[in-house]
Amino acid sequence: MKTMTTEELLNLLDANEDLHVIDVREDFEVADGVIPGAVHIPLGEIPNSLEQLDKSVPYILVCKGGVRSENACQYLEEQGYDVTNLEGGMLSYDGELEFK
TM segments (predicted)? Predict the structure, then answer.
């Protein structure tokens, strides 16, 4: 499984890269803010949300600490998706936040 540090993510965000971030935390957790541009799909809803995802697009998955997003990455990889887990999750992320 591919992984990425929050420093690598911040560098990509600073470079205005076209990123596709999926936040798999629960509703009450994303109320504290998400990575700008992230799409919120709670972990339990991932299997029922595959039609929203494009297998030709690379995704970066994030949760609070990196464990749930790792589980989501494993599942999505098995389904043929190109995914990367954000190491340390939002606990390690100290960049800009977006509130939805």
Answer: none
Q: What is the DSSP letter of 67?
A: H
63, 73, 83, 90: which one is catalytic?
63
Q: In the structure encoding, which two tokens stand for residue 19, read together? A: 């990123």
Which of helix, strand or coil describes residue 52?
helix
pTM above 0.85, yes or no: yes
| Residue 34 resides in a domain | yes
Cα angle 83-73-31, degrees, rounded to a multiple of 5: 95
In a domain, 60, yes or no: yes
Q: Clarify whether 63 is annotated catalytic.
A: yes
Beta bridge partners, 23, equal: 40, 62
- 88 in Cβ contact with 63 (< 8 Å): no
Q: Mind listing the pLDDT tens digit for each residue in 9-59? A: 999 999 998 999 999 999 999 999 999 999 999 999 999 999 999 999 999
- Report the number of distinct structural domains present in the chain: 1
